[in-house]
């Protein structure tokens, strides 16, 4: 059943797909919103002969892209990406992001970093003034307890993400665990990202604060969508 939120996601995804040009290498994010962009890209490939290659950020993105007929390539083949389309869990007015609800944050950050332009597609519930969502941290299983302790010292309440229809921890596409960290309200996302990055065994976190200059945020509405100007 289609809900207003689904329509918002669809409108954002379709708008982003319209920004892709012939011949581009496209980063394909993970999650429910970016799937609409992939759906529309698949239509453009079939209907208009659009020629692109996608770099998937997860098994889920790769599987869905194949279903939509989007040819795939890799970050090894294309260490520079023309445009990446991805979702987010929260977006602040400067274009900082929290990502990783789907545990794809590590590859998503590699792709965002490699991309010349990043299009973030969200529904209006994701737009916030200040971050307060859980920050996922991908951790090396060997170091999960020591990383958890260090995160606690930074003020987090870390919880190991558990599988659904699988007992025990979520194992990411990279073979690691996820610690979901509650920090309450986050005053300086950039500082926090840097502090987490300095913990050995914390492989990446879901705070994305380095890409505001190349990010365009498309907020889908029930009817249409708007492009947000970043402050
Ligand atoms: O790991 C998952 C990703 O960061 C997603 O892009 C993010 O969680 C947003 O997903 P959705 O579009 O389903 O809300």
Task: Tell me the layout of helices and strands.
Layout: H1 4-17, E1 25-28, H2 34-48, E2 53-56, H3 59-67, E3 81-86, E4 90-91, E5 97-98, H4 105-114, E6 115-122, E7 135-139, H5 144-153, E8 157-160, E9 177-182, H6 189-197, E10 202-205, E11 207-208, E12 215-220, E13 225-228
Parallel strand pairs: 1-2, 1-3, 3-6, 6-12
Antiparallel strand pairs: 4-5, 5-11, 7-9, 7-10, 8-9, 12-13
Helix pairs in contact: 1-2
This protein binds ribose-5-phosphate.
Written overview of the protein:
- The chain is globular, with a radius of gyration of 17 Å.
- It has a six-stranded mixed β-sheet with strand order 2-1-3-6-12-13.
- It has two domains: 4-127 and 210-224, Rossmann fold (3-Layer(aba) Sandwich); 135-204, Alpha-Beta Plaits.
- The model has no long low-confidence stretch (mean pLDDT 97).
- It is of the alpha/beta class and 231 residues long.
- It starts with a helix and ends with a strand.
- The protein is 29% helix and 25% strand.
- Helix 1 (4-17) crosses helix 2.
- It has helices spanning 4-17, 34-48, 59-67, 105-114, 144-153, 189-197; strands spanning 25-28, 53-56, 81-86, 90-91, 97-98, 115-122, 135-139, 157-160, 177-182, 202-205, 207-208, 215-220, 225-228.
- Ribose-5-phosphate (R5P) binds at residues 29-33, 86-89, 99-105, 108.
- Ribose-5-phosphate (R5P) is lined by residues 29-33, 86-89, 99-105, 108.
